[in-house]
Design brief:
By secondary structure, the chain is mostly helical. The chain has helices spanning 4-8, 20-49, 54-108, and strands spanning 9-12, 15-18. Helices cover 77% and strands 7% of the residues. The model is unreliable at 1-11 (pLDDT under 50).
């Protein structure tokens, strides 16, 4: 993995984990770009066409809103992915703890389960 993807995932013993750089990275950059594009577009439209160009500005605002909506969806998808990864990690920890508990029980009570009265 090289470039931006190398910063988004960090490998450790438990597998890939999301880093804080990915938490706000691209969605925040896209949101800032959408706001900047709307502001610059509005200034250009007013300077070029005057206040009569507000209909065109409306279309530019609609485009900016669309970009912001897509960014919000992306952000939500990433948050849900992190939640699912955390749930899986928790399930693995619980299974390991249960296996360890059973192992300790077998070590302390060597009687086979079928031989008990």
């Amino acid at each position: 993995m090289r470039g931006l993807a190398a910063h988004a995932v960090q490998d450790d013993k438990r597998g890939p984990r999301l880093t804080s750089r990915q938490d706000l990275g691209w969605p925040l950059i896209l949101f800032g770009a959408a706001v900047l594009l709307c502001l610059v577009g509005s200034i250009i439209l007013i300077e070029t066409f005057g206040w009569e160009g507000l209909g065109v500005e409306f279309l530019a605002g609609l485009g900016g809103s669309l970009i912001a909506f897509v960014v919000a969806l992306t952000w939500d998808r990433d948050r849900e992915h992190r939640r699912r990864v955390d749930e899986r990690e928790q399930a693995v920890k619980e299974a390991a703890a249960e296996a360890e508990r059973l192992q300790r029980r077998l070590e302390t009570d060597p009687t086979p389960p079928g031989a008990r009265a």
